Amino acid sequence: MAESIDHLVEGCRRGQPAAQRALYERLGYQLMGVCLRYCPSRAEAEDALQLTFVKIFTRLDQFRNQGPFEAWARRIAVTTSLNLWHQHQQRGPHLDTEEAADIPHPDGTPFDQLSAADVVQLMNTLPPGYRTVLNLYAVEGYSHAEIGELLGISEGTSKSQLSRARRLLEERLHQQAHIPHYHD
């Protein structure tokens, strides 16, 4: 039976290499997905993942059990990846299309012929600021106030960039799906 996250965290606090390895194996795939959404390349996402785990292991004393450990670890992955993004703003964050599964949409909408890789490619065409706000809000679940704090922008700018990102993505989805698009 797999050990609980809480048990692994306690082992990590005691400096047990087996617990650290097990925690890495348990959360690595999920956190790599987070890193890939913000880092400009797979290699940098891998670096961000390694830095994330270094921070997790060295800052365990800051985890106060005030929510799921996974959420705390995800926040570290996001901020670590965003730091890399800030260093490479000209290129911007992107999702690696090779990382996306080729799964059609299950609800039978006109977009059902689009794979996850197609959606990822469309997201990668968004300007970096829009793409980052969209990821933080829609994927990571951050509030506009939190996004503003993370990116050094106002809450209103975050809302505006999200709205523009959604509009651009919708337009590009319609173009990709070759269906007519009507503005309200």
From TrEMBL:
<feature type="domain" description="RNA polymerase sigma factor 70 region 4 type 2">
    <location>
        <begin position="119"/>
        <end position="169"/>
    </location>
</feature>
<feature type="domain" description="RNA polymerase sigma-70 region 2">
    <location>
        <begin position="23"/>
        <end position="89"/>
    </location>
</feature>
<dbReference type="InterPro" id="IPR007627">
    <property type="entry name" value="RNA_pol_sigma70_r2"/>
</dbReference>
<dbReference type="InterPro" id="IPR013324">
    <property type="entry name" value="RNA_pol_sigma_r3/r4-like"/>
</dbReference>
<dbReference type="Pfam" id="PF04542">
    <property type="entry name" value="Sigma70_r2"/>
</dbReference>
<dbReference type="InterPro" id="IPR013249">
    <property type="entry name" value="RNA_pol_sigma70_r4_t2"/>
</dbReference>
<comment type="similarity">
    <text>Belongs to the sigma-70 factor family. ECF subfamily.</text>
</comment>
<dbReference type="InterPro" id="IPR013325">
    <property type="entry name" value="RNA_pol_sigma_r2"/>
</dbReference>
<dbReference type="GO" id="GO:0003677">
    <property type="term" value="F:DNA binding"/>
</dbReference>
<dbReference type="InterPro" id="IPR036388">
    <property type="entry name" value="WH-like_DNA-bd_sf"/>
</dbReference>
<keyword id="KW-0731">Sigma factor</keyword>
<protein>
    <submittedName>
        <fullName>Uncharacterized protein</fullName>
    </submittedName>
</protein>
<dbReference type="GO" id="GO:0016987">
    <property type="term" value="F:sigma factor activity"/>
</dbReference>
<dbReference type="InterPro" id="IPR039425">
    <property type="entry name" value="RNA_pol_sigma-70-like"/>
</dbReference>
<dbReference type="InterPro" id="IPR014284">
    <property type="entry name" value="RNA_pol_sigma-70_dom"/>
</dbReference>
<dbReference type="GO" id="GO:0006352">
    <property type="term" value="P:DNA-templated transcription initiation"/>
</dbReference>
<keyword id="KW-0804">Transcription</keyword>
<dbReference type="Pfam" id="PF08281">
    <property type="entry name" value="Sigma70_r4_2"/>
</dbReference>
<keyword id="KW-0805">Transcription regulation</keyword>
